[in-house]
Fold ATP-dependent 6-phosphofructokinase.
Amino acid sequence: MGSSPNSKPKIVRGSAGYVLEDVPHLSDYIPELPAYSNPLQDHPAYSVVKQYFVHIDDSVPQKIIANKDSPRGTHFRRAGPRQRVYFEPDEVQAAIVTCGGLCPGLNTVIRELVCGLYHMYGVKKILGISGGYKGFYAHNTIPLTPKTVNDIHKRGGTILGSSRGGHDTTKIVDSIQDRGINQVYIIGGDGTQRGAYRIFEEIRKRGLKVAVVGIPKTIDNDIPVIDKSFGFDTAVEEAQRAINAAHVEAESVENGIGVVKLMGRYSGFIAMYATLASRDVDCCLIPETPFYLEGPGGLFEFAEKRLKENGHMVIVIAEGAGQELVSESIQAMQKQDASGNKLLQDVGLWISQKLKDYFANQKTMGITLKYIDPTYMIRAVPSNASDNVYCTLLAQSAVHGAMAGYTGFTSGLVHGRQTYIPFNRITEGQNTVVITDRMWARLLSSTNQPSFLMAKTVIEEKKEEEEEEEEEAAAASNQ
C-alpha cells in the first residue's frame, strides 16, 4: 500500500493554551502559487449573503465544555468559502471515488460534490472513478455532470461502485498525474482515509498541485473527532423498523423472543441509539461491554425473568458483541477481509441458538424465537432528510476547501460546525461507546437490563471472599 505517512502535524499555538491543528495547504510545498478572487463573490445566490466568506482565522474547538480555568484547547480550521482561491475553474479536473462498504448517503455526497463544483465554481471537468481505489489504475471512469447525477440521491448504494482494498499508492498517483487530475475527493471509512493520507503524502513528495480531500463514511459512526458520520441517522431509523418487527413477532406468541442483529463491528452506536429511540428493547449488547450467559446476573437468568414478567422480550445485539464467546478458535478470530477488517462470526445466530438450547434444557418454559438481520437492507436504502442535508454540507465544505488550496484533510462536523480535520486525526483511532458515559446509563435505565460487567465483578469478588474465608478456616484448623 505504499509508505506510511511521515509528515509532521501542522500546529499553530496562541495565547491562553490555544492550539490549532491546521491542515496542509498547497502553498506549503509549491512556492509562489498564484491566487485568484473567489467567483462566489459575483454569484447571484451567494453575493447577497453578508459575511459569506469565512475569516482566515476562524476555528472550531474540539471540546466545548470548559470551566473558568480551562485552557482554550485544541481547535480545527472552520470550513467554508475563502475570498481567495488557488484554482481557476477552467483548470480544474476533479475526480470522485467511493470505497469500502455501502452506506446511505453515498449518492447524495457524489451529487452535491458535482453540483457544488459545477454551480458554485463553474468547474466542468469532473470524473467518477469506478470500483473504488483500483479504478484509478484500471482506468474506469464515468463523466459526471449535474444532469447525470440529478436524481441519484433518491437511490441507495453508489453509482460509481465500490470495493475494499485494491490500494496501490504509487499506481494511483501515477494515474492522477497522467490524467491531469488536480482535485481528488475520496469518500470512505478509516481505512480509506488512511489510503487518502498516503496519496496526499506521495503527491506532496512529487510537488504536484493536487488537492486531496476526504469525506468520512462509516455507517457504524466509529470515526473519531467528528460528531457523527453521514448515513448514521438513516441507519438508526431503519434499524427501528427491524426492532418493531421483532417486537410484534415476540408479543404475538407465548414467551416470544425477538433477536435483532445490527451493524457495529467495534462500536455499538447504531444498537445503542436504535434501542433508545425504540423503547421496545429489553436488552442491548454491544462490543464495548462484555456480557456472559450463565449464572447469576447473566443473560439467561435475565431473559427468563423478563419472559415471566412480560411474556415476551426483544434483544438487540451489535455484530461485534460477544465475539470472544462465539469464536471457536484463535484462527477464526484472525481472518480478515480485503480492507484488513477482522471477519466476525455471526453472533446473532449464535446467541439465538444458545437461548433455544438453554430453555430447551431447562424445560420450565417453551419459547418461540425470531431472528432478524437487517444489515443489507439498512445499508442499501437512500439517506433520509437529515442525512441528505448533512451530506450536502459535507460535500460543499469539501469543495470550498479544495478550491481554497487546502489539501490532506477530511471534511467533518465538530460540535455542529463544519471543519477541516487533518487526515492523521481522523485515522488515529476509533470512536466507541463510552460505557461510563451518561448515554449508556440512559440506555441501562431504559431497558432495565443488568450491567453484566458489574454483576460479574460482584460474583467474582464474592467468590474470592469465600475462597479467602475457606483458606483462613483451613489455616486455623491446622494450627
Q: What stands out?
A: The two ends are 69 Å apart (CA to CA). The domain at 232-380+434-461 is CATH 3.40.50.460 (Rossmann fold).
